[in-house]
Write a structure and sequence with these properties.
By secondary structure, the chain is of the alpha+beta class. The protein is built from four helices and three strands. Pfam families: TadE (PF07811).
């Protein structure tokens, strides 16, 4: 009886190695997917928070704001070129894993003015590029976020 068990074990020598290779490969793919999804959430959060920061800057730096430079108005009484708002969004997004040269920032004033009491909309979009090229066909998408508010002064 003991001899039969030994012979059975000798026949299964290579199957353990094959099974380990298959399981290890699947584990590495799943692990890479988890890392990629985590990075994707981080990039989306960065883009959303950058839009929020840009909208906040636009809200507190309306056309009625007095001052000069960075603390001045975001534009004179009418919709501006919004370079200051774009700079704020770009600076905020640079803290995350975002290539700021590929970031698209759009600032809109639905009422046509950046005076106090008027609305402002900041939209930020970013074409996501996966860290691992294997996932580029699945996760090749554009992430975007819009934040809006009412200009206070």
């Amino acid at each position: 009886m003991r001899i039969q068990a030994i012979r059975r074990l000798q026949k299964d020598e290579g199957s353990t190695l094959i099974e380990f290779c298959l399981v290890a490969f699947m584990f590495i793919i799943v692990l890479a997917g988890v890392v990629e999804m985590g990075r994707m959430v981080l990039v989306y959060t960065t883009v959303a928070n950058a839009a929020r920061a840009g909208a906040r800057y636009a809200i507190v730096h309306g056309g009625d704001r007095t001052g000069s430079g960075v603390d001045g108005p975001s534009g004179p009484g009418s919709p501006c070129t919004c370079t200051q708002i774009t700079t704020v969004v770009t600076n905020f997004a640079s803290a995350g894993l975002v290539d700021t040269t590929r970031l698209t920032v759009t600032v809109g004033y639905p009422n046509g003015s950046n005076a106090a009491g008027k609305a402002v909309t900041v939209t930020v979009s970013y074409p996501y590029d996966p860290l691992i090229p294997y996932f580029s066909t699945i996760l090749n998408t554009t992430m975007g976020s819009t934040s809006e508010g009412i200009i206070t002064f």
